């Protein structure tokens, strides 16, 4: 039997804005196998990003439980949760979120600083990560000197910096043209072959068609 790396049980999340309460997740149960390639799909505004934030420990549910790598997140205080995130999960977002004043290598190093990698190991490791995404020759370029696809590959290198088991991505190709998207996808499939657990929130049906598992979110619930 395959090992489960993430579970959600009866997870709910509501947002209160003024007098309006939005029930973004209304009771979600799921499990994701270690080493699997999963897409989370569904209509806009139905709770996909909220689900990603909960299973990534970026936000907490109002009720229910989330377990990541054997740790139930509600039992962790904020600093333990941040440590678990830093060790186990690499995040990639639609808009890259690179620091504009830093080079590609320095952007990758920022993730290592937070997790206490010794300073002299940071640069060689960042270069290794950049070469894994085919950007060894762009280590000294700043984000505005890189194409969108290259910027996203730097963001993937940064997400890999602490060798996480899980890569959690929100529309990682949503801002890319089809050639850049294909390059990023090849990297993600390579990482999957290397054993990473890949979870992608996407509207892109081509990506979903290539996933091993699909989680469909509708009206704050998992659709059958
Ligand atoms: N921080 C927030 N404060 C208030 N409401 C929020 C917040 N984040 C999300 N919502 C609401 O929760 C619901 C679910 O949003 P969510 O971002 O999870 O949807 P989504 O499926 O990821 O949408 P999209 O595909 O458009 O990104 C929406 O009605 C949204 O407006």
Automatic annotation (TrEMBL):
Residues 6-223 form the ABC transporter domain. One of its GO terms (molecular function) is ATP hydrolysis activity. The keyword Calcium does not apply. InterPro entries: AAA+_ATPase, ABC_transporter-like_ATP-bd, ABC_transporter-like_CS, ABC_transpr_LolD-like, MacB-like_ATP-bd, P-loop_NTPase. The keyword Transport applies. Keywords: ATP-binding, Nucleotide-binding, Transport. Signal peptide: none annotated. GO terms for cellular component: membrane protein complex; plasma membrane. Belongs to the ABC transporter superfamily. Macrolide exporter (TC 3.A.1.122) family. This is ABC transporter, ATP-binding protein. It comes from Geotalea daltonii (strain DSM 22248 / JCM 15807 / FRC-32).
